[in-house]
Design a protein that fits this description.
Structural class: alpha/beta
Number of helices: 18
Strand content: 15-25%
Radius of gyration: 27 Å
Helix content: 25-40%
Length: about 550
């Protein structure tokens, strides 16, 4: 008998190459006709290369995202839609009925369950209401008199371990509470961490559970003090289901359908403590399938082949390797005086203002005067000084607007060109830069480098308080690339702000100390140093990065 056709769509497919291959192999093994479709906002998502069909869609934050996804599902007769990132879950849960109307089953838990999974404060309340031991959340009163360190701080609505930071003293607590958005502080738990990956059917029944001792976590915001996995953690993403006690593990009520992951700690007294239960996204599926659980086949069976036995001959791998993508490092680059000479932008702006004054007021020599002042070390009030030297007056605010809004005449350092050629397709790149966002975006456009980056973070998008050394832009990069802290390499030019927070978060840091840079530093304050100092980007230790 011919089995029904099943087209499966993955949203935000990104780099989930092995996941899509698993689904393709499973459909083939079951003899099910159908396509694997990869939807992503980017034009070069690696997973799109292994899908049967790649579809570019707007970002999740776009107002027409759901309408576009509905159109894709209707056009390609999608039977199942799997969301692969946090930001998709609630939006798709809220629109589940609309997708059902075009024949698409969205594999996501209920809106209430998803909403619960996004608030770690509710994790503690849920666990405690069900008698599950869990790390305590410290309130304001407890924090005012806190002397027992270390503790753990994290965003209550975070994910992928981004912003999870071990706090060793009151000074660090004050610093990170100020900068980590939606911060909550928890008791630190020491012990062995275990994760139970659970695949529940659409009827809520558990189909398979794969427990494993966790050695590392993709996207962890902070490792142990010595840089190794230290085995301490607080409460994770909230959810429903697993409870833990001295008598062993058992499933509680209200386990939703779909993919869920439950994390537990066994402390030194052998007491199990639950700290996380949340929606498991795409990277969990291979862990459920590879040990031989056949969970993926059962999940597909739930969608269109209910009641039929499903046993897929799936590709196996060594489970000790974990689900790792080929690109395990991420190179994060500053912009000014890292990729191009910042003084070139200054001089370009002086020329633009000079042309403006010549055209509007007949004033000549302004740009040359500004350059001379800049070379003499003047900063901050150059326009005022230049006007005074020329014996003329003008609206300085107007001149600043011309300066900031001009089209920059700038070019890349030659070693920056070489870097882009060397890492193309080998390492994901991110841009992290300070300064007025519109100005920085014009620089990127003038240099023609936007397409080199998998993520571009302009700290000013979150306001002046988010400029470095605020952790906010660093945490944003980590969330966009979803990699572990120690996998990030940050290259910048200004020790006064570039490296202090990156190092606290566990990043590797490189100071490119170029002769003639605008921000010259004679002595670097303790704690603000970089791990490596180079004179140009050609000095990067490529052998360490496998290049």
């Amino acid at each position: 008998m011919s089995l029904p056709e099943l087209n499966i769509l993955f949203s935000a497919a990104g780099r989930r190459v092995s996941l899509l291959r698993h689904f393709r192999h499973t459909l083939d093994a079951l003899g099910v006709r159908g396509e694997i479709l990869a939807a992503d906002a980017g034009k070069s998502a690696p997973a799109a290369r292994v899908a049967d069909r790649a579809i570019q869609v707007p970002r999740v934050s776009a107002p027409d995202y759901i309408d576009r996804m509905l159109a894709v599902c209707a056009e390609h007769r999608v039977g199942m839609l799997f969301p692969l990132i946090d930001t998709d879950l609630l939006l798709l849960a809220q629109n589940r009925e609309r997708f059902a109307a075009v024949g698409t089953r969205v594999v996501v838990s209920s809106e209430a369950s998803v909403a619960l999974s996004f608030d770690k404060r509710l994790t503690e309340a849920f666990f405690r209401a069900h008698g599950i031991d869990t790390p305590a959340v410290l309130d304001e009163q407890a924090l005012e008199t806190l002397t027992d360190f270390p503790v753990l701080i994290k965003p209550w609505d975070g994910s992928c371990g981004v912003g999870v930071t071990r706090i060793r003293n009151a000074e660090e607590l004050h610093f990170f509470r100020r900068y980590i958005p939606h911060a909550m502080v928890q008791e630190l738990v020491n012990g062995e961490e275990f994760t139970c990956d659970v695949l529940a059917g659409l009827d809520g029944r558990v189909r398979c559970v794969v427990p494993r001792k966790r050695l590392e976590i993709r996207g962890r915001g902070q490792q142990g003090a010595d840089g190794e996995r230290s085995g301490d953690h607080g409460g994770g993403a909230a959810g429903r289901g697993v409870s833990a006690g001295r008598g062993g593990l058992h499933y509680g009520a209200m386990l939703p359908s779909g993919r869920w992951s439950f994390a537990l700690y066994r402390d030194q007294s052998a007491l199990w403590r639950g700290f996380s239960a949340g929606t498991a996204r795409g990277r969990r599926f291979p862990a459920l399938v590879d040990p031989g659980a056949s969970g993926l086949a059962r999940g597909v069976g739930d969608g269109r082949l209910a009641g039929r036995p499903c046993h897929a001959a799936l590709r196996r791998r060594d489970p000790r390797r974990g689900e790792r993508d080929s690109m395990s490092l991420a190179l994060v680059l500053d912009l000014d005086d890292t990729l191009y000479p910042e003084r070139a932008y200054n001089f370009s702006g002086f020329r633009a203002v000079g042309r403006h004054l010549a055209a509007q007021r007949g004033i000549s020599g302004f740009a040359d005067c500004c350059v001379a002042l800049f070379e003499s070390g003047a900063r901050g009030d150059i326009f005022d000084q230049a006007l005074a030297r020329l014996g003329v007056t003008a609206d300085v605010a107007e001149l600043l607007t011309v300066y900031r809004e001009h089209a920059p005449e700038i070019t890349l350092f030659e070693d920056a060109r070489t870097l882009f050629e060397r890492v193309r397709g080998k390492l994901p790149l991110a841009l992290l830069t300070d300064g007025y966002a519109a100005v920085q975006r014009r620089k990127v456009a003038a240099l023609g480098i936007a397409d080199h980056f998998a993520a571009r973070v302009f700290s000013d998008d979150e306001g002046r308080e988010a400029w470095k050394p605020s952790p906010l832009p660093y945490l944003r990069v980590m969330k966009l690339l979803a990699q572990k802290a120690e996998e990030f390499i940050y290259v910048g030019d200004n020790p006064a702000k570039d490296f202090v927070t990156a190092r606290k978060l566990g990043w590797q840091t490189v100071w490119v100390c170029r002769p003639g840079a605008v921000h010259q530093v004679e002595a670097v304050a303790p704690g603000f140093e970089a791990d490596i100092v180079i004179k140009s980007l050609t000095g990067l230790p490529w052998h360490r990065y496998g290049l």
